[in-house]
C-alpha cells in the first residue's frame, strides 16, 4: 500500500492552511519591505538635512573653497578666538566647528569640534576638500604641471583568460561569488526554517498521541518521507510567495514614495563606489552581461536543484529523527548543536575558504563531506568544478541521505512511542540496535 | 479454520527489560476476547506486536492462518489507550484521511461515516475541529475511525474510558453489534464488570507471562470453591453446634431485603448442594440460597497475588 501521496497531501494542506503560516507568508514581505522603506526614508531625510558647519580658517588659504551646497552650509568665522568660535558654534546649534591652523611652514593642523561624534561621510568630505586644496597648493609651490601629471596617469585592467581561450574578469569573479554565496546561503536558511518545521510536526504528532493510530496504518519510513516532502512543498510555496509579493511590493513602494533603493548604502559602500567611479559605467554593465553569459548556467541551475534538494532532504531526515527522539521542543536543544555545527561550518568555509581559493584542498575536501558538501559545492560550482567531482559529491550526499532515512526511521519507530523519557545519546544508539 | 488470531511463543525484550516472555494465545472467530493484566504486564506490547508497530524478538503471529504481513494492516482496527487525533484538523477531513490510510476510497469512507455519525448521534460536527470538541465527542470520533474500514479484528484498549454511562452503553451496544456482524474483538481493560459482561474468552498477563487463559466460564468453574451463601429464618429445631459440626460454616455479610441469619457454607467433597439445602429446610425457612461464583475481579486479584 502506497500512502505517500496521501500523507504528502495532508502535510501540505495542514501546513498551508495553518493560520500562523498564512499570516507569516503575507506579513513577512510586508514587514520586510516596510522596514526597508522606513530605513530608506529615514536615511534620505537624514541626508536631506543641511548641515551647518562653521569654519575657522587661521591660515587664510581656504577663503574661497568652502562653498555651501545642498548638504553643507559653511559659515566663515574670520579671525575669531578659538574659544569664541566654539561658543558661537554651540549657541547657533551648528553641526560642528572646523578649525584649520598652521603648525609651521609646511604642516597644516585640522581639527573638528562637535557635540556628537560626526558621521564618517562628513569627515571624509571635509578631508577630501582640504587635501585637494593643499595638494594643489603644493603642486603650484613646487612648480609642477598638474595637467602633465593627469596625462601621465595610467589605469590598468588585467585581461584574464584561461588556456582554452575563455575570457574572464574581476567582475566575473564577483558575479561567481555572488551566485555561489546566494545559493549556499539560501540552502542554509531553508534548512534551518523548514527543518525546524518538520521537527515540530513530528513532535506535534507525538504530543497529540495520534501517532499510534497512524503508525498502525503506515510504515514509519513512509510517514517520514511524506512529512519531509509535504513540508518542503509548503516551504517552497511560502518562498515563492515571499519572492513574488516582495518584488511587487518593492516596485509599488518605490513608485509611491519615490525612493531610490539603490541609494540606500552604508558609508563604506559610498567610499568604495567613489573609488570605483573611474570606470565607465556603460562599460561595466556590458562586462557584467558578458560575465553572466560566461557562467556555466545550465550546470549551475541543474546542480543547484540537485544539491539543494538532496542537501535539504539529508538535513530534514536528521531534524525528523530529533523530533521523534524527544518529547517536547525544549528537549531538542541538546541535539540541535551537532546539527547546526556542520551547517555553520559549511557556510563559513564557503564564505572564507572558497572565496580565497575555490579549488584548494580545504574547499575540495569539504565539498565531499556529505554534511557540508551541499553548501560548499554550491558555492564552488560557479568557479567551474569538474563534472566527476560534482557527481561523486552528489552521490555521497544521496547515499548518506538514504542511510540517514533508514537510521531516522529506526529512531522514529521506537522514539515516537516513547513518552516522558528524555533520551540520551547512549539510549539512541541502543534504539538503533533494536 | 476458526481461529482468527494465533500468537505463537512471542517474546520481546527492551534492553534488559523483558516485556513479553514466550506468550501464546489463540482467539476464535467472532468472539470477544478479554486481554487482562495489571499495569506493565505487557498487554500494550502484545497489542503493538499484533499491529506490527513493534516486531517480536522471537515467535510469530498468524492472522486467519497467514503469517502477519504489512498488508494485513487493513484487516485490523486499533483503538489505543492513549487517544489522539490531529487537533487542528476538521472532523470529517480527518476521518476520511485515516480511513484512506486503511485503504478505503474517499467516497466509500464518506458514505460509511454518514451512517456511523447517525448511529452514534453525532450531528453537525463534520466541519468542526477536534480541539473544539469535548473529550467524549472526540472519543466517539476515534471509535468510528477505528471500526470504519470494517476490519476482521478489532482491538479496543480501554474503550469506555472518558465516556459517561449513557455513552459507554452506546459504545457497548456498538461493540456487541460489531461482533454480530462477524468481527473478532480483543478487549483490554481494567474494568472487570465489563469483562464479566462482554468477554467470551480471557487471558491474564502478569509480569510478561501469561498466567491463565481460556473460556471465562470454564475458568470460573476452576476457581469456584463450592461455597454457598445462605439466609434462613431459623425455627426451634435450629441448633448452632449441630450446623457447625456438619458443615464448614462461616458468618457472612451480604445484602438482602430481610433480616435473617446469613452464612457462607463451603461444601466438602462428599457433600452436595442438595444435602445442604435439605438440612437448611429442616432447621428453618430458607430465604436466600446462592452459589458463590468467583467474579473476574476475584480471579484477577487471586491470580496476580499468588504468582
From TrEMBL, chain A:
| Localization (cell) | Cell membrane
Give the GO cellular component terms, alphabetically. plasma membrane
Q: Signal sequence span per UniProt?
A: none
| InterPro entries recorded | ABC-2_transporter_component, ABC2_TM
Residue stretches making up the ABC-2 type transporter transmembrane domain: 19-409
Sorted UniProt keywords:
Cell membrane, Membrane, Transmembrane, Transmembrane helix
Listed transmembrane segments = 20-42, 174-194, 239-259, 292-315, 335-355, 362-381, 387-409
Tell me the protein's name.
Answer: ABC transporter permease
Where do the coiled-coil regions begin and end? none
How does the UniProt record describe the way this protein sits in the membrane? Multi-pass membrane protein
SUPFAM superfamilies for the chain: Periplasmic binding protein-like II
The opening ranks of the lineage are: Bacteria, Pseudomonadati, Bacteroidota, Flavobacteriia, Flavobacteriales
- Gene Ontology molecular function terms on file: ABC-type transporter activity
Give the main localization category.
Answer: membrane
Q: Which domain of life is it from?
A: Bacteria
TrEMBL record, chain B:
Record key words, sorted:
ATP-binding, Nodulation, Nucleotide-binding, Transport
Pfam families with a match to the protein in the record: ABC_tran (PF00005), DrrA1-3_C (PF13732)
Annotated Gene3D superfamilies? P-loop containing nucleotide triphosphate hydrolases (3.40.50.300)
CDD domains for this protein: ABC_putative_ATPase
GO MF terms, alphabetically ordered: ATP binding; ATP hydrolysis activity
Family membership noted in the UniProt record = Belongs to the ABC transporter superfamily.
What is the protein named? Answer: ABC transporter ATP-binding protein
Lineage per the UniProt record: Bacteria, Pseudomonadati, Bacteroidota, Flavobacteriia, Flavobacteriales
Amino acid at each position: 500500500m502506497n500512502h505517500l501521496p496521501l500523507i504528502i497531501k495532508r502535510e501540505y494542506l495542514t501546513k498551508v492552511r495553518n493560520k500562523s503560516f498564512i499570516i507569516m507568508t503575507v506579513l513577512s514581505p510586508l514587514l520586510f519591505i516596510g522596514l526597508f522603506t522606513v530605513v530608506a526614508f529615514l536615511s534620505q531625510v537624514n541626508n536631506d538635512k543641511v548641515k551647518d558647519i562653521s569654519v575657522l580658517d587661521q591660515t587664510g588659504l581656504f577663503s574661497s573653497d568652502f562653498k555651501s551646497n545642498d548638504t553643507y552650509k559653511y559659515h566663515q568665522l574670520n579671525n575669531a578666538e578659538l574659544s569664541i568660535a566654539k561658543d558661537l558654534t554651540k549657541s547657533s546649534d551648528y553641526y560642528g566647528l572646523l578649525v584649520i591652523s598652521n603648525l609651521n611652514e609646511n604642516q597644516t593642523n585640522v581639527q573638528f569640534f562637535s557635540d556628537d561624534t560626526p558621521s564618517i561621510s562628513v569627515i571624509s568630505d571635509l578631508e577630501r576638500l582640504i587635501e585637494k586644496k593643499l595638494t594643489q597648493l603644493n603642486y603650484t609651490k613646487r612648480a609642477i604641471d598638474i595637467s602633465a601629471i593627469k596625462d601621465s596617469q595610467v589605469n590598468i585592467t588585467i585581461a584574464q583568460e584561461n588556456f582554452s581561450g575563455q575570457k574572464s574578469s574581476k567582475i566575473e569573479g564577483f558575479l561567481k561569488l555572488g551566485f555561489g554565496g546566494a545559493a549556499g546561503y539560501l540552502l542554509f536558511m531553508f534548512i534551518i526554517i523548514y527543518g525546524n518545521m518538520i521537527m515540530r510536526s513530528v513532535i506535534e504528532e507525538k504530543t497529540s498521541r495520534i501517532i499510534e493510530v497512524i503508525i498502525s496504518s503506515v510504515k514509519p519510513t513512509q510517514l517520514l518521507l511524506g512529512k519531509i516532502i509535504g513540508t518542503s512543498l509548503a516551504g517552497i510555496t511560502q518562498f515563492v510567495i515571499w519572492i513574488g509579493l516582495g518584488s511587487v511590493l518593492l516596485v509599488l513602494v518605490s513608485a509611491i514614495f519615490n525612493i531610490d533603493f539603490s541609494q540606500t548604502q552604508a558609508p563604506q559602500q559610498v567610499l568604495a563606489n567613489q573609488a570605483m567611479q573611474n570606470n565607465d559605467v556603460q562599460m561595466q554593465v556590458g562586462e557584467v552581461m558578458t560575465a553572466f553569459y560566461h557562467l556555466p548556467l545550465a550546470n549551475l541551475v541543474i546542480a543547484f536543484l540537485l544539491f539543494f534538494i538532496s542537501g535539504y532532504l539529508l538535513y530534514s531526515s536528521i531534524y525528523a529523527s530529533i523530533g521523534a527522539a524527544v518529547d517536547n521542543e525544549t528537549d531538542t536543544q541538546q541535539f540541535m548543536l551537532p546539527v547546526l555545527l556542520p551547517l555553520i561550518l559549511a557556510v563559513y568555509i564557503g564564505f572564507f575558504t572558497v572565496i580565497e581559493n575555490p579549488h584548494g584542498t580545504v574547499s575540495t575536501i569539504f565539498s565531499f563531506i556529505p554534511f557540508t558538501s551541499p553548501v560548499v559545492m554550491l558555492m564552488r560550482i560557479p568557479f567551474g568544478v569538474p563534472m566527476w567531482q560534482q557527481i561523486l559529491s552528489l552521490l555521497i550526499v544521496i547515499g548518506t541521505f538514504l542511510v540517514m532515512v533508514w537510521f531516522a526511521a529506526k529512531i522514529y519507530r521506537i522514539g515516537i512511542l516513547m513518552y516522558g523519557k528524555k533520551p540520551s545519546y547512549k539510549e539512541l544508539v541502543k534504539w538503533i540496535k533494536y | 479454520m476458526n481461529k482468527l488470531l494465533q500468537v505463537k511463543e512471542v517474546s520481546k525484550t527492551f534492553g534488559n527489560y523483558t516485556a513479553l516472555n514466550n506468550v501464546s494465545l489463540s482467539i476464535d472467530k467472532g468472539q470477544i476476547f478479554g486481554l487482562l493484566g495489571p499495569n506493565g504486564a505487557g498487554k500494550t506490547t502484545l497489542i503493538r506486536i499484533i499491529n506490527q508497530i513493534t516486531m517480536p524478538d522471537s515467535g510469530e503471529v498468524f492472522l486467519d492462518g497467514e503469517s502477519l504481513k504489512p498488508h494485513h494492516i487493513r484487516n485490523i482496527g486499533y483503538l489505543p489507550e492513549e487517544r489522539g487525533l490531529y487537533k487542528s484538523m476538521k472532523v470529517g477531513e480527518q476521518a476520511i484521511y485515516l480511513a484512506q490510510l486503511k485503504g478505503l476510497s474517499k467516497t466509500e469512507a464518506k458514505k460509511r461515516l454518514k451512517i456511523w455519525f447517525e448511529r452514534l448521534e453525532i450531528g453537525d460536527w463534520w466541519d468542526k475541529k477536534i480541539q473544539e470538541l469535548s473529550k467524549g465527542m472526540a472519543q466517539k470520533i476515534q471509535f468510528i475511525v477505528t471500526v470504519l474500514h470494517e476490519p476482521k479484528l478489532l482491538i479496543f484498549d480501554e474503550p469506555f474510558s472518558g465516556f459517561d454511562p449513557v455513552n459507554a452503553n452506546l459504545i457497548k451496544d456498538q461493540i456487541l453489534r460489531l461482533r454480530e456482524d462477524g468481527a473478532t474483538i480483543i478487549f483490554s481493560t481494567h474494568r472487570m464488570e465489563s469483562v464479566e459482561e462482554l468477554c467470551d474468552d480471557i487471558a491474564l498477563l502478569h509480569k510478561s507471562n501469561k498466567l491463565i487463559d481460556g473460556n471465562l466460564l470454564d475458568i470460573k468453574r476452576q476457581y469456584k470453591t463450592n461455597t454457598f451463601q445462605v439466609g434462613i429464618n431459623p425455627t426451634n429445631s435450629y441448633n448452632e453446634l449441630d450446623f457447625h459440626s456438619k458443615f464448614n460454616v462461616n458468618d457472612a455479610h451480604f445484602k438482602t431485603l430481610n433480616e435473617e441469619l446469613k452464612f457462607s457454607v463451603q461444601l466438602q467433597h462428599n457433600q452436595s448442594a442438595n444435602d445442604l439445602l435439605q438440612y437448611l429446610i429442616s432447621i428453618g425457612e430458607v430465604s436466600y440460597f446462592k452459589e458463590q461464583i468467583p467474579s473476574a475481579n476475584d480471579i484477577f486479584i487471586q491470580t496476580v497475588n499468588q504468582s
